[in-house]
Design goal:
By secondary structure, the chain is of the alpha+beta class. Helix content is 23%, strand content 37%. It has nine helices and 19 strands. The chain has helices at 4-20, 76-92, 125-140, 209-222, 240-253, 256-261, 321-327, 359-364, 414-419, and strands spanning 25-41, 44-62, 65-71, 145-164, 169-185, 192-200, 232-238, 281-283, 306-310, 313-314, 335-336, 344-345, 350-352, 368-380, 386-397, 400-413, 421-423, 433-434, 438-446. The strands form four sheets. It has a six-stranded antiparallel β-sheet. A five-stranded mixed beta barrel has the order 7-14-15-16-19. The chain has a five-stranded mixed β-sheet with strand order 10-9-8-13-18, covered by helices on one side. A hairpin with a 2-residue loop joins strand 2 and strand 3 (65-71). The longest helix has 17 residues, at 4-20. It is globular and about 70 Å long.
Length: 448
């Protein structure tokens, strides 16, 4: 895996070769990563793996024609061959009036923010194994746990660099660490599984493995002997672990490409109040040690924090340069790309701002409801907003969680769900996308 400066040098050489071969413009991205993962089961080592890889993606433009190629062979000879192939492909490609690099005057020129994404660590496999065993042992020690799907420990480092023929040349690196456990509780037909995990940028920020394991064990035992419910209209409360998926559906509906294609149920909602006034959703790419923090986007534009939803109102789309041109707007610094194909658009660290109601008070007013801890399937129609997903969780009776529930389906329409959503005040920044406990009135539950 190359260091950032070496990666930039290699990409700069590729762009020079592309220009010499007849490209009018080009950009190139380098992605390198190395990771170690260890898994254990029932206290014994089950698997240990080490992976290392690096790849370069090259995008060239000949007029309004473009082509993208990638290679994992970074030798000068291989890169030269890739460049020649890309330019030849671009000459034969159809014209696209929206194709092109990001506007040169919008590229990040200032010094990048210090995001503290790399702690310099490289823990040995023996330490990762010890953490995995500790997490699994803690989970198995919970009364009622009868079997284990295993514990895991992982560590990795990644380097990303981007160079464009318009003068952008920067990169960054980051580390990542994780510990997890998954166990089974109960016997026979009553068996249930659950899990817990924690992922961070700095090793020192990891929760204690025993804490992660105990959470997995306690979650599993609470789910034993679930009941089914009859079909009914009901208030749904989403645990933060699954409530974040609602933000994923929102993001998918406000990317520039979905708006330009007319395939989003929110295509006519720009500036409209689609949530209650008390709901704000923020995208914060410069969060220190954030799991999706980045100083620039996939096209070299500076990233900035913004409220995607501000007091209930949709403030704008998430756009790369191509979709922005198609919509007659400016790119927003949300371009996201890998080594293959053109950029798309997506958020960085996303969160719903905490509400003003405690979790207890959010539940208190619910005489009969359903608290969701797990979602199954992806029954969401991005064109209409229709929502239907399998779910498990707990019955809410008089404001308290009571018996476990499994094998039900919850349904609604995302427009109605967003309008009727109320966040609690228990937001914790733990993942790349974070939400507090969320209550939604007026949904439908289909029982078995």
């Amino acid at each position: 895996m190359l260091k950032v400066d070496a990666a930039i040098d290699r990409l700069t050489h590729a762009l020079a070769a592309a220009k010499a071969a007849g490209a009018d413009a080009a950009d190139a991205v380098y992605v390198g990563d190395a990771s170690t993962s260890v898994s254990v089961r029932l206290g014994a080592l089950e698997d240990i793996g080490r992976s290392e890889g690096e790849e370069v993606g090259l995008r060239v433009f000949v007029g309004r024609r473009s082509a993208s190629v990638s290679t994992s062979d970074l030798s000068i000879a291989a890169m030269t061959a890739v460049v020649d192939r890309a330019v030849a492909m671009a000459r034969e490609a159809p014209e696209d009036e929206y194709a092109g690099l990001a506007p040169a005057d919008r590229l990040m020129r200032d010094d990048p923010p210090a995001l503290d994404l790399d702690d310099g660590g490289d823990p040995p496999a023996e330490l990762l194994k010890a953490l995995a065993i500790e997490a699994e042992d803690a989970a198995r020690s919970v009364a009622g746990v009868t079997n284990s799907e295993g514990g895991g420990g992982s560590a990795g480092r990644a380097v990303m660099a981007l160079v464009t023929s318009t003068g952008f040349a920067r990169g960054y690196r980051g580390t990542s660490y994780g510990v997890s456990a998954s166990v089974i509780a109960g016997e026979g037909q009553a068996m249930q599984r659950d899990y817990a995990y924690h992922s961070v940028r700095h090793f020192a920020d990891l929760d204690a493995a025993a804490v992660i394991g105990r959470e997995a064990g306690e979650r599993a035992t609470r789910r034993v002997n679930p009941s089914k419910l009859d079909t009914q209209a009901i208030t749904i409360v989403f645990d933060p672990r699954v409530g974040s998926s609602l933000l994923g559906h929102l993001v998918g509906s406000i990317t520039g490409s979905s708006i330009a294609r007319g395939t989003s149920f929110l295509r006519d909602s720009l500036g409209a109040e689609i949530f209650a006034p008390g709901v704000t959703i923020r995208d914060e790419p410069h969060r220190i040690r954030g799991l999706r923090s980045r100083p620039f986007d996939g096209e070299g534009l500076a990233t900035t924090a913004r409220s995607i939803i501000d007091a209930g109102r949709l403030t704008g789309w998430l756009m790369d340069s191509a979709s922005a041109r198609q919509l007659g707007l400016e790119p927003t610094g949300h371009a996201a790309r890998g080594v293959s194909g053109p950029p798309g658009a997506g958020p960085s660290n996303l969160h719903m701002v905490a509400g003003t109601t405690s979790r207890a008070d959010l539940l208190k007013g619910i005489k009969h409801g359903f608290y969701v801890t797990e979602l199954i399937g992806m029954g969401v129609n991005g064109l209409t907003g229709d929502y239907s997903r399998g779910a498990s969780g707990y019955l809410i009776e008089d404001g308290e969680l009571t018996m476990p529930v499994a094998e039900v389906t919850i349904a609604g329409n995302l427009k109605d769900m967003f309008r009727n959503l109320t966040p609690a005040d228990d937001l914790v920044f733990r993942h790349a996308t974070n939400v507090p406990t969320i209550r939604i009135d007026g949904m439908t539950l289909a029982g078995g």
